[in-house]
User: What shape does this take?
Amino acid sequence: MQAKPSGTAVNQKRSADIAVIIPHYNDRDRLHRCLTALVADPEIGKADIVVVDNNSDQDLTPLRELFPSVRFFIETLPGAAAARNRGVRETSAPMLFFTDADCVPQAGWVAAGRAALDTSDIVGGAVELFDETPPPRNGAQSFEAVFAFNQKYYVEKKGFSVSANLLTWRHVFQDVGDFRPGVSEDVDWCHRARKRKFYLIYDSSVLVTHPTRANMNELRKKWRRVVCESFELQAGLPFPRVRWAVRAGLVLASPMLDLRKLILSNRLRTPKERAAGIIALFYLRALRAGWMVRQVFGWPV
Assistant: This one.
């Protein structure tokens, strides 16, 4: 178990124009890749990089030694929302750049993000996918390649940005309030911000990459979490369980609408990848619909 960093000078708030906040939990190798990409950015000297570890079992001492300019903190309250909130509290920069430990910020991310925030209150940057294993893609990877992280659609049609590449101003964050644990915190936070008339834009030049889930077990884990967090967001709406039951039916029927998108996608290279993606599509949507029905009746998922 790691020792909690003491209040030494290295962990004092720094004077910077950008704070890059990265939650982490037991993903040291990907965090190493993320930090390597960040410190290679020529603009990063003007940023305060903060990693907030969610009480991992993994010792991050080697990374502290490799990246002495990065500040590390431990947040014992579980969840990425709590880690991001801690990162905000531990920094003072006027611009907040949120990304994840498994993301790889691309060259120019800092400069592009700064320029984008000059024209908006909140920015959702692009998230492109890559595989961590050699081809061909399996079903989980094929599904993700087509359907995961459609940031432009999320921002322009759904009114939110995923927190894997979410940028905002500190005064906006303070006005909107912290990320709420236990829900889809990026969806919830962005919707609260838009209700307060803050402006959200999509900018493709603000780019990070993210690995596809390597197998179906990882994908099931992701979607179970998303279903549980999304269900909590329904609590404040009229007739939440009725709404959720209707939505479960739509999820079950949705593969027929999305099948064409998968078949025609230029992100899949071979018929085998398309076939694996089709199987994953029908399986995951049926699984999600089943979980949602269980939630309607108050059963555990």
Notes: The CA atoms of residues 140 and 217 lie 9 Å apart. DSSP finds eleven helices and eight strands in the chain. The chain has a mean pLDDT of 94.
